[in-house]
Amino acid sequence: MSQNDTKGIWKVISASSMGTMIEWYDFYIFGSLAVVISTKFFPSDNPTAAFLSTLATFAAGFVVRPFGALFFGRLGDLIGRKYTFMATLLLMGCSTFLIGCIPSYETIGFFAPLLVLILRLLQGLALGGEYGGAATYVAEHAPVGQRGYWTSWIQTTATVGLLISLIVILVTKSLLSDEAFDVWGWRVPFWVSIVMVGVSYIIRKNMHESPVFSKAKKEGTISTNPLKESFGNRYNLKFVLLALFGATMGQGVVWYTGQFYAMSFMKTVMNVNSSQVDELLGIALLLGTPFFVVFGWLSDKIGRKYIMMGGMLLAILLYRPIYQKMYETVNLEQKNIVSVGRSTEINEAKKELHTITKNIYEDGTIVTKKTAASINDKTLKANMSSEITVNSSDKWLLVFLVFVQVLFVTMVYGPIAAFLVEMFPVQIRYTSMSLPYHVGNGIFGGLLPAIATYLVSNSKAKGQADFYLDGLWYPIIIAGICFVIGMIYIDNTKKSMD
After folding, report:
1. Is there a smaller number of Cβ atoms within 10 Å at the N or the C end of the chain?
2. Long-range contacts made by residues 208-215, C-beta under 8 angstroms, separation at least 24?
3. Is 282 part of a structural domain of the chain?
4. How many C-beta atoms surround the C-beta of residue 482 within 10 A?
């Protein structure tokens, strides 16, 4: 590969990755702020129901991703990769910005969650068309024998988008008071996206069409009916189903367990301080992200299959021990209190008097409990919250445990773009690869936070001692089925994309 070729492929990677990263940022900012959003767009009289409703709305964006894959995948195979994922970028950016503009439930009532749901669905449609276009575009520029390496850079964008969403939230929180962030500051990360989208649009506008697609178009060999040729052809449909049930289904649940469920678990089950969770998750993501490229590169050398299957197997075997260890770090029954403090503050925005009790434990763990009373009628315990700030050593233990889960993610996700684009011919590649990817990630993966949280809540209500582990049965079973199918039917040999 010459220096000019390398420079050219880096331009392709940079332009594609920046846009895709911004779309992931837009998509995941909702999940990163799920705890806050549940108090803004849903009734506040039942916090658990409000949070589950928020997760359900979050999941709705995943459910429609396959429809976006079909719609935009078809366009990508008909008119080209470039213009299709420029359209998805604009749709995603505008939807995200508008979520940050919706008035709260207290202001417009039922219309608040309805508008959020509509915009969330538009986000899902946009992302359904984005990933397949970006992965196909990069793969069709990459040299033979190096597709795993070059497409793995696109694979980093989902995690980088999540990481940037956490950074933007942390910076916004640091610049504002807790009260200001609660009232309006949470909207800032949504508003910021419109600026990033504008910059990315300008960059993408100057990109050239994929050389492989341009050649096919010039020769008159592009598909006239991508949907029919992708799913109406029994031979091609067989590979679509294998891609779904032998790879992307398991990859989807591993991805969302290792990043989103880990975050949700620490915030809602372990009750760890939200900002501290964002910080330690951000560190783990930063440490783990380079391994997407490592495993993408390695898949060029030894094949895609065993790396992806290995990541699934490790996740299946180690999830329960990992989450048990995570939960034990905040087990207060094994810790001794050394001091107790109490203070009060007034929240003018909510007209509440907050009584704050702070328990400091021998190992440095801090538990902060907040009881709210109405200023107007002196109602006691209108609501109560409790959060844990873990000590330094436990914090780094949690960073390590999340980092291990991110490694599983990089193993299953790093090689998968190259794996998918190599399965299908150029004429129907965008359509054929997009659907199994977004069903695997959007349906099986996207529903994971809501399903796992429900399983944990249900087990806790029944009084089970290890209730906090029951949410893991969903990813373990799905990944287990995918592992068996993938090991039996996936071919480990690298394929031509001609």
Report:
1. C
2. 208/82, 209/80, 209/81, 209/82, 210/80, 210/81, 210/82, 210/136, 210/137, 210/140, 210/141, 211/140, 211/141, 212/140, 212/426, 212/497, 213/80, 213/81, 213/140, 213/426
3. yes
4. 28
77 close to 129: Cβ distance less than 8 angstroms: no
What per-residue confidence (pLDDT) applies to 35? 75
Structure-block tokens of residue 328:
């034990």
> Amino acid letter at 296?
G
Q: Taking 90 as the threshold, does the pLDDT of residue 353 lie above it?
A: no
User: 278 or 481: which carries more pLDDT confidence?
Assistant: 481
* Burial bucket for residue 134 (CB in 10 Å: 0-12, 13-18, 19+): buried
Q: Specify the residue for token string 């490694």.
A: 407
How far is CA 32 from each of CA 27, 169, 186, 248, 479, rounded to the nearest angstrom?
A: 10, 8, 11, 23, 24
Instruction: Record the tokens describing residue 176, joined without a space.
Output: 């504002």
Question: Which tens digits make up the pLDDT trace of 53-86?
Answer: 777 777 787 788 888 888 888 887 887 777 787 7
Q: Quick check: 452 and 474 in contact, CB under 8 A?
A: yes
Do the domain assignments include residue 25? yes
Among residues 353, 354, 348, 350, the alpha carbon closest in space to that of 375 is found at 353
Residues 127 and 251 in one domain: yes
| Rounded distance between C-alpha atoms, residue 238 and residue 249, angstroms | 15
Higher pLDDT, 188 or 497: 188
Same domain, 304 and 180: yes
Backbone φ, ψ for residue 164 (5° rounding) = -65, -35
429-438 and 111-139 helices, crossing angle to 10° = 130
Encoding tokens for residue 365? 């763990």
Q: What is the pLDDT of residues 124-143, one digit of tens each?
A: 888 887 777 777 778 877 88
One domain for residues 348 and 433: no
